Amino acid sequence: MAEVAKVVIHPNENQSQQNGEGKGNENQVSRHQEVGHKSLLQSDALYQYILETSVYPREPEAMKELRELTAKHPWNIMTTSADEGQFLNMLLKLINAKNTMEIGVYTGYSLLATALALPEDGKILAMDINRENYELGLPVIQKAGVAHKIEFKEGPALPVLDQMLQDEKNHGAFDFIFVDADKDNYINYHKRLIDLVKVGGVIGYDNTLWNGSVVAAEDAPMRKYVKYYRDFVLELNKALAADPTIEICMLPVGDGITLCRRIN
Ligand code: SAM
Ligand code: CA
Protein backbone atom coordinates (compact mmCIF):
# COMPACT_ATOMS: atom_id res chain seq x y z
CA MET A 1 0.00 0.00 0.00
CA ALA A 2 2.82 2.36 0.88
CA GLU A 3 4.50 1.55 -2.42
CA VAL A 4 1.26 2.09 -4.28
CA ALA A 5 0.78 5.45 -2.66
CA LYS A 6 4.35 6.29 -3.69
CA VAL A 7 3.47 6.24 -7.35
CA VAL A 8 0.15 8.04 -7.31
CA ILE A 9 -0.34 10.43 -10.17
CA HIS A 10 -3.18 12.71 -11.06
CA PRO A 11 -3.84 13.07 -14.75
CA ASN A 12 -5.94 16.16 -14.20
CA GLU A 13 -3.27 17.90 -12.23
CA ASN A 14 -1.45 18.46 -15.48
CA GLN A 15 -4.02 20.89 -16.64
CA SER A 16 -2.38 23.80 -14.92
CA GLN A 17 0.79 22.81 -16.77
CA GLN A 18 -0.97 22.63 -20.09
CA ASN A 19 -2.21 26.11 -19.40
CA GLY A 20 1.45 27.04 -19.31
CA GLU A 21 1.65 27.29 -15.53
CA GLY A 22 5.50 27.36 -15.36
CA LYS A 23 5.45 28.83 -11.85
CA GLY A 24 7.09 32.22 -11.69
CA ASN A 25 7.42 32.69 -15.42
CA GLU A 26 4.70 34.99 -16.66
CA ASN A 27 6.33 35.42 -20.06
CA GLN A 28 6.11 31.74 -20.75
CA VAL A 29 2.41 31.76 -19.93
CA SER A 30 1.60 34.45 -22.43
CA ARG A 31 3.94 33.07 -25.12
CA HIS A 32 2.33 29.67 -24.76
CA GLN A 33 -1.04 31.14 -25.64
CA GLU A 34 0.13 32.95 -28.76
CA VAL A 35 -1.12 31.71 -32.12
CA GLY A 36 1.69 29.72 -33.71
CA HIS A 37 3.16 28.47 -30.46
CA LYS A 38 4.36 24.95 -31.12
CA SER A 39 2.13 23.36 -28.49
CA LEU A 40 -1.56 23.67 -29.21
CA LEU A 41 -2.98 22.40 -25.95
CA GLN A 42 -3.84 25.66 -24.26
CA SER A 43 -6.75 24.88 -22.00
CA ASP A 44 -8.84 22.32 -20.16
CA ALA A 45 -11.52 23.03 -22.75
CA LEU A 46 -9.20 21.88 -25.52
CA TYR A 47 -8.44 18.67 -23.63
CA GLN A 48 -12.16 18.07 -23.10
CA TYR A 49 -12.65 18.66 -26.82
CA ILE A 50 -10.16 15.87 -27.60
CA LEU A 51 -11.89 13.50 -25.19
CA GLU A 52 -15.40 14.25 -26.36
CA THR A 53 -14.68 14.49 -30.09
CA SER A 54 -12.22 11.70 -30.68
CA VAL A 55 -11.65 9.56 -27.58
CA TYR A 56 -14.97 8.77 -25.89
CA PRO A 57 -16.95 8.17 -29.09
CA ARG A 58 -14.40 5.53 -30.17
CA GLU A 59 -13.62 4.05 -26.76
CA PRO A 60 -14.40 0.31 -26.75
CA GLU A 61 -17.32 -0.58 -24.43
CA ALA A 62 -15.05 -2.66 -22.17
CA MET A 63 -12.61 0.22 -21.71
CA LYS A 64 -15.47 2.55 -20.83
CA GLU A 65 -16.75 0.02 -18.30
CA LEU A 66 -13.29 -0.38 -16.76
CA ARG A 67 -12.76 3.39 -16.68
CA GLU A 68 -16.08 3.91 -14.89
CA LEU A 69 -15.41 1.07 -12.46
CA THR A 70 -11.94 2.45 -11.70
CA ALA A 71 -13.34 5.95 -11.15
CA LYS A 72 -15.12 4.59 -8.05
CA HIS A 73 -11.88 3.21 -6.57
CA PRO A 74 -10.12 5.31 -3.90
CA TRP A 75 -6.80 5.32 -5.80
CA ASN A 76 -8.39 6.20 -9.14
CA ILE A 77 -5.88 8.99 -9.74
CA MET A 78 -3.38 6.28 -10.71
CA THR A 79 -5.30 5.15 -13.78
CA THR A 80 -4.18 5.82 -17.35
CA SER A 81 -6.28 8.54 -18.99
CA ALA A 82 -8.65 7.62 -21.80
CA ASP A 83 -6.69 9.60 -24.41
CA GLU A 84 -3.47 7.85 -23.43
CA GLY A 85 -5.27 4.50 -23.58
CA GLN A 86 -6.35 5.30 -27.11
CA PHE A 87 -2.80 6.36 -27.98
CA LEU A 88 -1.28 3.11 -26.65
CA ASN A 89 -3.84 1.03 -28.51
CA MET A 90 -3.06 2.81 -31.77
CA LEU A 91 0.73 2.63 -31.24
CA LEU A 92 0.66 -1.11 -30.60
CA LYS A 93 -1.26 -1.69 -33.81
CA LEU A 94 1.09 0.58 -35.78
CA ILE A 95 4.15 -1.39 -34.66
CA ASN A 96 2.40 -4.78 -35.01
CA ALA A 97 3.27 -5.64 -31.44
CA LYS A 98 2.77 -9.23 -30.39
CA ASN A 99 4.92 -9.91 -27.36
CA THR A 100 4.64 -7.16 -24.74
CA MET A 101 5.24 -6.37 -21.09
CA GLU A 102 3.62 -3.98 -18.64
CA ILE A 103 5.10 -2.94 -15.30
CA GLY A 104 2.41 -1.31 -13.14
CA VAL A 105 -1.12 -2.58 -13.82
CA TYR A 106 -3.42 -1.14 -11.12
CA THR A 107 -6.98 -2.00 -12.32
CA GLY A 108 -5.81 -2.65 -15.86
CA TYR A 109 -6.90 0.25 -18.09
CA SER A 110 -3.62 0.42 -20.06
CA LEU A 111 -3.46 -3.38 -19.91
CA LEU A 112 -6.87 -3.66 -21.55
CA ALA A 113 -5.91 -1.04 -24.15
CA THR A 114 -2.89 -3.24 -24.91
CA ALA A 115 -4.75 -6.56 -24.87
CA LEU A 116 -7.37 -5.23 -27.31
CA ALA A 117 -4.65 -4.08 -29.71
CA LEU A 118 -2.73 -7.36 -29.86
CA PRO A 119 -3.51 -10.24 -32.22
CA GLU A 120 -5.32 -13.31 -30.82
CA ASP A 121 -2.00 -15.04 -30.06
CA GLY A 122 -0.43 -11.86 -28.61
CA LYS A 123 1.04 -11.91 -25.10
CA ILE A 124 1.41 -9.45 -22.22
CA LEU A 125 3.56 -10.18 -19.21
CA ALA A 126 1.90 -7.91 -16.64
CA MET A 127 3.48 -7.22 -13.27
CA ASP A 128 2.25 -5.47 -10.15
CA ILE A 129 2.87 -5.75 -6.43
CA ASN A 130 -0.90 -5.55 -5.93
CA ARG A 131 -3.09 -8.38 -7.26
CA GLU A 132 -6.28 -7.12 -5.62
CA ASN A 133 -6.60 -4.09 -7.92
CA TYR A 134 -5.85 -6.20 -10.99
CA GLU A 135 -8.62 -8.58 -9.94
CA LEU A 136 -11.05 -5.69 -9.67
CA GLY A 137 -10.72 -5.02 -13.37
CA LEU A 138 -10.20 -8.63 -14.44
CA PRO A 139 -13.89 -9.52 -14.95
CA VAL A 140 -14.16 -6.69 -17.50
CA ILE A 141 -11.01 -7.92 -19.28
CA GLN A 142 -12.41 -11.46 -19.31
CA LYS A 143 -15.75 -10.27 -20.67
CA ALA A 144 -13.86 -8.48 -23.46
CA GLY A 145 -12.39 -11.88 -24.43
CA VAL A 146 -8.73 -10.88 -24.13
CA ALA A 147 -7.70 -12.29 -20.72
CA HIS A 148 -5.98 -15.27 -22.40
CA LYS A 149 -3.29 -12.87 -23.69
CA ILE A 150 -2.30 -11.84 -20.15
CA GLU A 151 0.13 -13.51 -17.78
CA PHE A 152 -0.08 -11.65 -14.46
CA LYS A 153 2.81 -11.85 -12.00
CA GLU A 154 2.29 -10.50 -8.51
CA GLY A 155 5.32 -8.93 -6.85
CA PRO A 156 8.09 -6.42 -7.50
CA ALA A 157 9.09 -6.33 -11.15
CA LEU A 158 12.85 -5.92 -10.77
CA PRO A 159 13.68 -9.46 -9.56
CA VAL A 160 11.48 -10.89 -12.33
CA LEU A 161 13.47 -8.93 -14.92
CA ASP A 162 16.74 -10.15 -13.42
CA GLN A 163 15.53 -13.70 -13.61
CA MET A 164 14.38 -13.28 -17.20
CA LEU A 165 17.79 -11.94 -18.19
CA GLN A 166 19.36 -15.24 -17.08
CA ASP A 167 17.65 -16.91 -20.01
CA GLU A 168 19.11 -15.94 -23.38
CA LYS A 169 15.81 -16.59 -25.14
CA ASN A 170 14.23 -13.57 -23.41
CA HIS A 171 16.88 -11.24 -24.82
CA GLY A 172 15.35 -9.08 -27.55
CA ALA A 173 12.04 -10.93 -27.14
CA PHE A 174 9.68 -7.99 -26.54
CA ASP A 175 8.11 -5.74 -29.17
CA PHE A 176 6.73 -3.27 -26.65
CA ILE A 177 7.15 -2.59 -22.93
CA PHE A 178 5.05 -0.09 -20.94
CA VAL A 179 6.55 1.10 -17.65
CA ASP A 180 4.08 2.74 -15.28
CA ALA A 181 5.16 1.81 -11.74
CA ASP A 182 7.64 3.01 -9.09
CA LYS A 183 9.37 6.03 -10.61
CA ASP A 184 12.45 5.64 -8.39
CA ASN A 185 13.20 2.38 -10.20
CA TYR A 186 12.77 3.52 -13.80
CA ILE A 187 16.52 3.77 -14.36
CA ASN A 188 16.97 0.28 -12.90
CA TYR A 189 14.20 -0.99 -15.16
CA HIS A 190 15.78 0.67 -18.16
CA LYS A 191 19.15 -1.05 -17.60
CA ARG A 192 17.39 -4.39 -17.83
CA LEU A 193 14.63 -3.67 -20.34
CA ILE A 194 17.08 -2.47 -22.96
CA ASP A 195 18.26 -6.09 -23.29
CA LEU A 196 14.76 -7.56 -23.21
CA VAL A 197 13.22 -5.32 -25.90
CA LYS A 198 14.11 -6.22 -29.47
CA VAL A 199 16.16 -3.92 -31.71
CA GLY A 200 13.46 -1.75 -33.32
CA GLY A 201 11.11 -2.40 -30.39
CA VAL A 202 9.72 0.30 -28.11
CA ILE A 203 9.78 0.97 -24.37
CA GLY A 204 7.28 3.58 -23.13
CA TYR A 205 8.06 5.29 -19.82
CA ASP A 206 4.99 6.92 -18.36
CA ASN A 207 4.68 10.13 -16.32
CA THR A 208 7.91 11.66 -17.57
CA LEU A 209 6.48 15.19 -17.18
CA TRP A 210 5.58 14.27 -13.60
CA ASN A 211 2.63 16.60 -13.02
CA GLY A 212 4.59 19.35 -14.75
CA SER A 213 6.93 19.45 -11.75
CA VAL A 214 9.93 18.92 -14.04
CA VAL A 215 9.87 22.66 -14.75
CA ALA A 216 8.78 23.87 -11.31
CA ALA A 217 11.14 25.90 -9.11
CA GLU A 218 12.88 23.98 -6.32
CA ASP A 219 10.84 25.82 -3.69
CA ALA A 220 7.52 25.67 -5.53
CA PRO A 221 4.68 24.17 -3.47
CA MET A 222 4.27 20.53 -4.45
CA ARG A 223 2.46 17.52 -3.13
CA LYS A 224 4.79 15.34 -1.09
CA TYR A 225 4.83 12.41 -3.53
CA VAL A 226 5.39 14.76 -6.47
CA LYS A 227 8.37 16.31 -4.72
CA TYR A 228 9.76 12.93 -3.68
CA TYR A 229 9.80 11.43 -7.18
CA ARG A 230 10.64 14.58 -9.11
CA ASP A 231 14.42 14.13 -8.96
CA PHE A 232 14.13 10.52 -10.13
CA VAL A 233 12.06 11.61 -13.13
CA LEU A 234 14.51 14.44 -13.92
CA GLU A 235 17.41 11.96 -13.75
CA LEU A 236 15.58 9.48 -15.94
CA ASN A 237 14.81 12.12 -18.58
CA LYS A 238 18.49 13.13 -18.69
CA ALA A 239 19.66 9.52 -18.86
CA LEU A 240 17.26 8.62 -21.69
CA ALA A 241 18.30 11.70 -23.69
CA ALA A 242 21.95 10.65 -23.35
CA ASP A 243 21.49 6.94 -24.09
CA PRO A 244 23.03 6.07 -27.49
CA THR A 245 21.24 2.70 -27.66
CA ILE A 246 17.83 4.32 -28.16
CA GLU A 247 16.00 6.96 -30.15
CA ILE A 248 13.51 8.88 -28.03
CA CYS A 249 10.36 10.92 -28.33
CA MET A 250 8.70 12.59 -25.36
CA LEU A 251 5.01 13.14 -25.90
CA PRO A 252 2.77 15.42 -23.83
CA VAL A 253 0.04 12.79 -23.70
CA GLY A 254 -1.41 12.14 -20.24
CA ASP A 255 1.33 13.01 -17.75
CA GLY A 256 3.99 12.68 -20.44
CA ILE A 257 5.18 9.48 -22.06
CA THR A 258 8.68 8.96 -23.41
CA LEU A 259 8.92 6.43 -26.20
CA CYS A 260 12.32 4.78 -26.58
CA ARG A 261 13.10 2.81 -29.72
CA ARG A 262 16.02 0.44 -29.31
CA ILE A 263 18.51 0.95 -32.13
CA ASN A 264 21.34 -1.42 -31.20
N1 SAM B 1 -0.94 1.36 -15.86
C1 SAM B 1 -1.95 1.43 -14.81
C2 SAM B 1 -3.29 1.83 -15.39
O1 SAM B 1 -3.43 1.99 -16.60
O2 SAM B 1 -4.23 1.98 -14.60
C3 SAM B 1 -1.55 2.38 -13.70
C4 SAM B 1 -0.40 1.89 -12.87
S1 SAM B 1 -0.26 2.76 -11.34
C5 SAM B 1 0.18 4.39 -11.82
C6 SAM B 1 1.26 2.15 -10.68
C7 SAM B 1 1.22 0.69 -10.26
O3 SAM B 1 2.56 0.26 -10.02
C8 SAM B 1 0.45 0.41 -8.96
O4 SAM B 1 -0.61 -0.47 -9.21
C9 SAM B 1 1.49 -0.21 -8.03
O5 SAM B 1 0.98 -1.25 -7.24
C10 SAM B 1 2.54 -0.72 -9.02
N2 SAM B 1 3.89 -0.87 -8.47
C11 SAM B 1 4.54 -0.08 -7.58
N3 SAM B 1 5.76 -0.54 -7.32
C12 SAM B 1 5.93 -1.66 -8.09
C13 SAM B 1 6.99 -2.59 -8.29
N4 SAM B 1 8.14 -2.46 -7.64
N5 SAM B 1 6.81 -3.60 -9.16
C14 SAM B 1 5.63 -3.75 -9.83
N6 SAM B 1 4.59 -2.90 -9.68
C15 SAM B 1 4.73 -1.87 -8.83
CA1 CA C 1 0.87 6.53 -15.40
TrEMBL record:
Region Disordered, residue ranges: 1-34
Enzyme Commission code: 2.1.1.104
InterPro entries in alphabetical order: Cation-dep_OMT, SAM-dependent_MTases_sf, SAM_O-MeTrfase
GO biological process: circadian rhythm; lignin biosynthetic process; methylation
Pathway(s) it belongs to: Aromatic compound metabolism; phenylpropanoid biosynthesis
Entries under Gene3D superfamilies matching the protein: Vaccinia Virus protein VP39
Keywords in alphabetical order: Lignin biosynthesis, Metal-binding, Methyltransferase, S-adenosyl-L-methionine, Transferase
Top-rank EC class of the record's enzyme: transferase
CDD domains membership: AdoMet_MTases (cd02440)
UniProt entry tagged with the keyword Transferase: yes
SUPFAM superfamilies: S-adenosyl-L-methionine-dependent methyltransferases
Comp. bias regions, Polar residues: 12-28
Keyword S-adenosyl-L-methionine: yes
Catalysis: reaction(s): (E)-caffeoyl-CoA + S-adenosyl-L-methionine = (E)-feruloyl-CoA + S-adenosyl-L-homocysteine + H(+)
GO terms for MF: caffeoyl-CoA O-methyltransferase activity; metal ion binding
Similarity comment: family membership: Belongs to the class I-like SAM-binding methyltransferase superfamily. Cation-dependent O-methyltransferase family.
Protein's recorded name: caffeoyl-CoA O-methyltransferase
Organism: Lithospermum erythrorhizon (Purple gromwell)
Organism classification: Eukaryota, Viridiplantae, Streptophyta, Embryophyta, Tracheophyta
